Structure formats: structure tokens, C-alpha cells
Sequence to fold (446 residues):
Amino acid sequence: MIKVPNNKMDKIINLCKRRGFIFPGSEIYGGLANSWDYGPLGVELKNNIKNEWWKIFVQQRTDVVGLDAALIMNPKVWEASGHTGKGFADPLTECKECHKRFRADQINTSESCPNCGAKESFTEPKMFNILMETHLGSVEGEKSLAYLRGETAQSMFVDFKLVADTMRKKLPFGIAQIGKSFRNEITPGNFIFRTREFEQMEIEYFVKESDWEDYFHMWQDQMISWLTHLGVNLKNVHFEEISEEKRAHYSSRTIDIEYDFPFGQSELYGLAYRGDFDLKTHMEHSGKDLSYTDPDSGQKIIPHVIEPSFGVDRSLLVALLEAYHEEDAPTADKDEAAQRIVLKFPKWSAPIKVAVLPLSKKEELTEVAKSLYEKLTKQFACEYDETQSIGRRYRRQDEIGTPYCVTIDFDSLTDKAVTVRDRDTMKQERVAINKLENYLAEKLIA
Ligand code: GAP
Fold:
């Protein structure tokens, strides 16, 4: 049995590396602090989360349309939005002894340094802008300053008029986007929780000012449903009203959706009422009319915005934390310990849906198993594995959260049936090969 660490975060990080979910970034060069690469199973899990979110919040709704905008925008966008100024800056302080930097709002600067223990050693906090700079152009000296976007939201404001006009949308309606954002975070850490490069799934929902409260509540409910769908137990979730002084510069009301992470209660998602701040500021700075003409009254108005914002990486982290179980699992297989680690993902998010496992490497079995695998893999994300004992192979599939294992044994050659093992109950059922695809399709949709 593999040695697993005690702390739940360390267990997850360990499992993620061992099983191909998430690797430390640039590892062969000694890594790059707080950068992570999603491996073959991680990218499947992440894509499942993004695709499901898109299906629920864009494709299955009549009032939301999608966008995939350029990640590097005209720098004037970020000046207008307030991101180049104080609005997107964190207070930075440094320990004079060990020179480690901290966010002044996250530590008590009158206490000793959490890194080296030095007393009263902090510098006066300075505001540090976290927008990430880049330079465009190839000729040295002629390169122009640009920014990697700090949130996906801005392009949805900048393109508001184009989307509203081309899609002939009436209020209330939303624009959704999934994509990378970048922030020069002072204190990245806790695995994929806070990184400098991350993904967001955001909706800017445009409403009439008088309706904002109703839609704020509607989106809060939608976010709760999504969390349940992701497999999150709501007893681990908290809704924190953010006070005016702690709110982002654009927000008139914010609720942080926080989660009991192993390192403490912290922000998972955010829900903000951005008022008409963004459309107004882009109108002023661009000189372009971004108003909306109400078809009923003929009046020109500037829509107000409700913004549910979901971090992709944090979604994936809570999906892993919620799915992770250690269980007693007595086995007849002498090679196997009587404990198992199992990721009980909702079936829709599991990176691999079906594992095809011939009981032995004998050709008469592998031939049948391989042809079954080739057939099934056209419909479901499948794995084929013929190495090690069947007990070990079940344990491996449990650890990556595969809902069904299909085992081909010597009886299969005569009775034309296979054994299907359920990840959660570990119960096994004999299913005719010619009924297997329908059987799995029904189970995986349920
Ligand atoms: N458009 C609003 C906005 O960007 P935010 O609260 O700064 O609001 C929204 O970010 C979400 O993006 C967060 O709730 C979190 O899920 C995710 N997020 C923000 N910064 C992150 C970081 N450094 N690493 C990983 N995820 C992050």
C-alpha cells in the first residue's frame, strides 16, 4: 500500500501527482513556484467541469450567450476599468530580517514574522498593483506595454453592444466566458488555490436597475445548485457579506461564497452587483455609446450588472476534496491492503468513466477486451489496463474515480458476458456483452 501523508491537502497533492492529475510546473528545471500543470486526468476533469458549466449556464439557458475574447486587450481597457490604479492593488509588507513578503491585510503586522519569527520587523505597507504586464512587438525599444487580463469580465463589457445587437438580446440577458486570467499575487499558495495564472468562468448578467436585487438572489440560488451538482456538501459552504471597505472598487454589493478548505475558510466563488460602473466607465473612456434602448419605453438606459464569478481551479480543488474518501474495503486479494482510497466524483465529472480489464494477459482474453475497449471508448472516456492483479487494478481505478470497471474473464468466452463493478458500492453484476453499451449509458446518465 502507498504511504499517504496525514494532512488532507498533502494527500490530495500526493494523489494528484501519483495518478496524473496535477504536476508541479517545469519540474525538471527545479519547478517554478506556485505553477502547476494539469496532467492527462486533470485536463479531463477540468474540461468536464468547464463543459458542464457551459452546458448549464449557456447552452441550456435562453438568456445567456457565450464569448471567447482576446486575452490581451487594449491597455486603455484596464485604465478605464480601474485595474491599473489602486482598485487592483494589494497592500504589501516585507520582513526586514528574512525579506519575505506578505499581504499586510492577511497578517498582523504588530506580531512576529510568520516565516523567521523576527519581532516588529515589517516595513510600512505599500500598495502593489497585481495586473501582470507584458510587452507587444518584436523591435527592442518599440515594444508597447500591455497587460495579461486580470479578469475575464472586462471583454464582456467592452463587447456588450456588439453582443446585444448581433444576438438581438433583450434585458435581462447575460454574457458568459471561460478563460485564463493573470494576477501578480503577493502570496500565491495552497496548491492550485491561489496562483498567478488561473482560469475563471464568469457571467455578466445585464438587468434594469430596478430589478437588480431579484436577479442577485436568482444567481445566488443558481450558484448553490451548481455547487450541489459539483458534489459539494453545502455544510462546508458559507455565504459572507463583504463590507463596503473590503469590496472591489466596482462593486455595490458582494457575497463571497466561501468553503472550509483544509487550510481554513476561504473564498471559492464571488457574486457581485457591479451596478452600471463598468459600462459607464467604458462609455466615458472610449467615447462610444454603450447604452441600451428599452423596446417597451423607447428610453435609453445603461444596464446594471450582476456578476457570478467561478474559479475553475478552485472548483476542481473542492471537487477533489469532496470526492476524496478513505474506506475499509476487505479484499480476498492477498496483494491488496484492506483499505482503499476512492474519489467519489459525480459520474459526469469523473475523468475516466469505464475501465476495461481482462482478468489475465492471455491472448484469448485480451483480444476480446481490446475490441470491447475500442468500441466503448468511442462513447465514453475509457481506459484499458492489463497489468498487475485485478485487485490492484480496481484500487487504481478507485483512486482516479472511475465509476465502472468491466472485467473480462474466461467465462466471458462462453457466456458472452462481463462483470461490471460499481466504484461506490463495489458490487459486481454480470452483464451480457451485447447489452453493455446501453447498460453503461443508462448508469452514467443517471
Ligand atoms: N470578475 C470578478 C473577479 O474577478 P475575484 O473575486 O477577484 O472577482 C473571482 O475572482 C474568482 O476567481 C474567485 O472567487 C476565485 O474562484 C478565482 N480566483 C481569483 N483569484 C485567483 C487566483 N489567484 N488563483 C486561483 N483562482 C482565483
